[in-house]
């Protein structure tokens, strides 16, 4: 478990990465050299000034000549640093371009695979089938629309117009009692009277 969670992710270092790192290291070394020379030149300038005060003009002149030579070295160092920085930028930009090209290459390969799966002929076939299905549905709709006669169409339109205007009259509900209910109410007392009469006859016997 410890090895599983403690394993570090391996990073791929390319030759371009190593070259960029080396160039940056050389640039940093040259900058350190520049700093060292500038400090030394400042000390020698102060020393030459002191020698002039002491009347040692020859020694002061020698130091100034040495300072002049070192100024030239600083200029060369500055040019080298500029060249290194330009090269680093070129390499870094080349890496970006390579990633872009790799991305385009991968995209083209994906497009080729998609084109292999769905060719132009396949697309045309699907479009034709879709158009056929649309045409078939249109024919069905026309057949359903033409199944009613002209008289039926007129009646439907008239009913729709009446509903829209609110002129449809519903039949009135009858308020009188239904005949079946009245007959049932009249027959009930007659049946009870017949039952009572039959009971009295049986008692008389």
Essential attributes:
6 helices; 205 residues; mainly alpha; single chain
Topology:
Elements: H1 2-6, H2 15-53, H3 57-117, H4 120-145, H5 150-165, H6 179-204
What report would you give on this structure?
This protein is an all-alpha fold. It contains 6 helices and no strands. α2 runs antiparallel to α3.
- What is the helix fraction of residues, given as a range? over 70%
Structural category is: mainly alpha
List unreliable stretches of 5+ residues: none
Shape: rod-shaped
How much is the radius of gyration in Å? Answer: 56 Å
Separation, N- and C-terminal Cα atoms? 113 Å
Q: How would you sum up the major sheet?
A: none
Tally of alpha and pi helices: 6
Q: State the total count of DSSP E strands.
A: 0
User: How confident is the prediction overall: mean pLDDT?
Assistant: 77
Oligomeric state of the chains? single chain
H/E element sequence: HHHHHH
Proportion of residues in extended strands:
under 5%
């Amino acid at each position: 478990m410890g090895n599983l969670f403690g394993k570090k992710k391996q990073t791929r270092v390319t030759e371009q990465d190593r070259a960029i790192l080396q160039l940056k290291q050389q640039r940093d070394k040259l900058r350190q050299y520049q700093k060292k020379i500038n400090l030394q030149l400042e000390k020698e300038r102060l020393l030459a000034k002191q020698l002039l005060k002491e009347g040692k003009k020859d020694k002061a002149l020698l130091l100034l000549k040495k300072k002049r030579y070192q100024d030239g070295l600083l200029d060369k160092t500055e040019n080298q640093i500029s060249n290194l920085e330009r090269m680093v930028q070129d390499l870094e930009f080349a890496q970006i371009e390579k990633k872009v090209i790799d991305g385009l290459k991968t995209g083209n390969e994906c497009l080729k695979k998609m084109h292999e799966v769905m060719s132009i002929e396949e697309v045309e076939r699907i479009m034709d089938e879709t158009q056929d299905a649309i045409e078939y549905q249109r024919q069905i709709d026309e057949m359903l629309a033409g199944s009613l006669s002209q008289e039926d169409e007129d009646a439907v339109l008239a009913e729709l117009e009446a509903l829209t205007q609110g002129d449809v009259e519903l039949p009135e509900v009858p308020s009188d009692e239904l005949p079946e209910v009245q007959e049932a109410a009249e027959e009930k007392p007659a049946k009870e009277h017949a039952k009572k009469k039959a009971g009295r006859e049986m008692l008389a016997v």
